[in-house]
Structures are given as C-alpha cells and as structure tokens.
Design brief:
five-stranded antiparallel β-sheet; single chain; Jelly Rolls; mainly beta; globular
Length: 116
C-alpha cells in the first residue's frame, strides 16, 4: 500500500466485531470495531478501533499489541500475574504469548495496533 489512510474516530462507523478466539466470562460485550489497516502476509501489522460494553473476556495474545484508551476503563491481567488498570489517555504494550483477561468496567473504546 502506498497511500495515506485517514479516519476520524468520532465519525467512523463501527461494525459488529468480536476478535477471534475471545471467551466471554461475564456480561455481553457487543464488540464493535473498525480496521484501518492490516497486512499479515509478512508478519503482523494491523491497526484500528475497538469498542465494547462492560464485560469480562479472555483471549490469547498471538501478536504484540499496543493500545491507547480513548473512552472508559479496563483492567488487563496476563497469565504471568502482571496486570494494569487503564483509563482515557493511557497507553499500554501487551506482549504476545500470554493469555489476557480484560475486565471492561464501563463502555470502552481503544485504538489498537498489532505487530510481531
């Protein structure tokens, strides 16, 4: 791809979307998202917006993930015992190879990026 892609977060239409491999433990996340860019041909490179309702989910981090919280709050815990509480303006790096547990305390929205 050799062009600039632009999206305005507040105006981007989100589609019903739940990441593959997610297990729902509590609540109904009603995941919604928008993928701005993805390329998995030569490693992982992808980025977009994800939004959901209060709930608790788990999934395996198959790629390194960077998130920037736009709205709401979440507690993320990894199977190695590390954890973090995030709210708007926070950014976090999640290393691949861990089972992650996400407790969404309120309606939540993030900008995410995946990389090998």
């Amino acid at each position: 791809m050799s062009e600039i892609i632009k999206a305005r977060v507040a105006e981007t239409a989100l589609e019903a979307w739940q990441p593959e491999g997610v297990t729902i433990h509590e609540g109904v996340p009603n995941g919604r998202g928008f993928t701005l860019f993805e390329d998995f041909d030569d490693g992982a490179r992808a980025t977009g917006i994800f939004e959901c309702d209060p709930s608790k989910t788990t999934y395996m981090l198959e790629y390194n993930e960077i998130i920037y919280v736009l709205e709401g709050s979440v507690t993320i815990e990894l199977d190695n015992g590390s954890g973090v509480d995030l709210s708007p303006g926070d950014i976090a790096f999640l290393p691949k190879g861990h089972l992650s547990t996400w407790t969404f305390h309120s309606r939540f929205k993030e900008f995410w990026a995946l990389a090998d």
